[in-house]
Amino acid sequence: MTNVSASFISDLMISMARATASPYQFLIVHRDAIPSISITEGAAELPAQIQGKLVSQLHLRPLDQRIVNMVYSKVMVEPVTHPHIVTISPTACALLGVDGEATLAKEAELAANLMSGNQAIEGSQSTAHLYCGHQFGNFAGQLGDGRAHSMGRVVSPLAGHMDKGGFDASFGPFVELQFKGSGRTPYSRTADGRAVLRSSIREFLCSEYMAALRIPTTRAAILVNSDTQVTRDPLYVGKPIRENASIVSRIAPSFWRVGSFEIFTAGKNGVEGPYAGEIDRCSDMLDFYIKQHFSHIWKKFPHGKPRYIEFFSEVCARNARTVAMWQSVGFVHGVLNTDNISLLGLTLDYGPFGFMDSFNPHYVPNYSDTDERYAYENQPKMIYWGLGKLAKAISGVVPLDELIAKLNQVFWPVYVDHFHSIVMRKWGMVGRDMKKRKAATQQAEKKNASAGTNGVNEDSGKVDSSSLKVPQAKKNSASTSKTAFADADVLDDAIYDNDEKLISRMMQTMEETGADFTNTFRCLSNIVAHEDGPESPESLSSRENVLDYIVSQLDDGREMANTMPYEVEYLKVLSTFPVEHDDVLLALTGKHVDYFKQRMESVARAKRLAAVSPFQKDDEDRAKWAAWLKQYQSYVNDDWKLAEASGATLTEYNTQRVTIMNTTNPKFCLRNYMAQSAFEKAKLGDFTELQTLTKILSRPFDEWEQYESLKYDRHASSLRMCISCSS
């Protein structure tokens, strides 16, 4: 680049603040150096003949870096020794227009070199993204891609085709290809820029499993292993080992996260973002990102402030829906720092994640999260908290109080709506949908069906999201949670209140008895509506079969006691802290007094469970589940009456109900022991189990009878494990 201005050099130095010295070439690309590219370019249907190409035929374009002093550093990928493909995701490869299976069959060696970065993909330009972040509640300042290289982007033939695995059309026609574990960048600090096979297998499997569950996520196309070795201490106990370095090729419309805008955050104690207080630059970045990935907002709002508020609102809504989906399948991210919260609402950066076996609201898969900051029950609050940090980061262009008001207005109502909607599908409550469709047809000229995703609830920021129980939305709010299913003429408040109560009872019963989260929901499809009501012989028989199945998978008392907190003196003391001084306790510990009271209750339960006989627990558990299943059976029959009033036959109702349930409740779940077992074989060179898991998890709702002997769908409490951040 010639004639680089002094100000540009200054900007370069600012952006590289605290980046370690490296032998790599790097620069911040000035917008004048990149030709302007229309946001609509390539959005038209692609010719069939250029779809399904091999990796060697892939042609990338550099990331569009038009914004002044864009936060990307150009840096070379570091090669690895003997790269080789261990597994692929054909559906993720299709996002690039690549036939993954043909690539594996015809050019596996070449593809391994291309997808590891050893050999350049035509048109690629490797860059690393600068961002900041709050980590475990504290602002860490500059972070950035320490081991990931964005190689470029390509027009996706599946853009907008969400039914085929494509991303939302509003994100734009492009997808970005990124290599994770591909070597050092200016943001690596003292790390080696590598990712080991152990963590790469987990990221690959979970990315594709989440996509199959229809949960917004980044994708993983190809996993490449190598003979390059790195040193890791998996449990941080002073026992380092040598592990193979691997590269995951990740795909997303954008990998920007909340931390991408925290470069403008004015921090404390001398820690701040490299562009703290630079309002004009913040406006430029917002305009750039909105035009790229929220073009509908760009077109609708021609001026800055309304545009930025609408963008922030949609980021809040998308993340609220995503975390509701996490809660519905028992997924716990593990590290919900702000640098891991996607601006597009995608599940981003799979580290020490986990899926619950037995339901436990305190479940933490992260070995390092001893304070349970990112426990299952806290995830909605942590996303809400992280979005508050986004508000602070861009408060130079929109007043902070307006952004926080929008956050409160949007986040909790959307979360409540979406979670409620998902649970009703998991329960197979299709009669309401039938009645809703009939009412909508009759009233189409009078009113439009409400989506229920932008309702106002002034008190929603106070909603208790600390458990799976659906938070209560004000009935007189502009948009109540019932709109996820139907308008006020179709589903009244009493029905919605009963939903909440039955959901709460189910979760309480699951927690008290140690029931498997995934399998319990799945087996409910065996309960169907009957003409003769919930006490007919057929109803009683199906209920008894489901009861036997659930009870057969419950934890015993000692297993449950081992997952609960031990009695320690500080819990006793803090649980008796005066309620009127709760704000002091919150400032000291980050938790309210109710938290410590609940933990002491758990201690008492653990003591009792450890002492109770297996026979006594079995009798008590059967009684609890029998009572809940009886209520649920009545619920199913009440829902059938709604369907009948809409003109459906009993056979039609039951068929549709079972279909919806079995395409909402997965048969298979990615349990940590499964990924670990695949890794143990893979590190010995046997990738067959990994490839089998990849196949099963890509279609987790199928029965897969041929793999029944592997018992992947079984509860296995003795094999539970925590995961560290080591990767």
From TrEMBL:
The keyword S-adenosyl-L-methionine does not apply. Its cofactor is Mg(2+). The keyword DNA-binding does not apply. Residues 438-481 are annotated as: Disordered. GO terms for molecular function: ATP binding; metal ion binding; nucleotidyltransferase activity. Residues 450-481 have a biased composition (Polar residues). It comes from the Eukaryota. Keywords: ATP-binding, Magnesium, Metal-binding, Nucleotide-binding, Nucleotidyltransferase, Transferase. InterPro entries: SelO. PANTHER family: PROTEIN ADENYLYLTRANSFERASE SELO, MITOCHONDRIAL, SELENOPROTEIN O. Belongs to the SELO family. HAMAP family: SelO. This is Selenoprotein O. It comes from Sphaeroforma arctica JP610. The lineage of its organism: Eukaryota, Ichthyosporea, Ichthyophonida, Sphaeroforma.
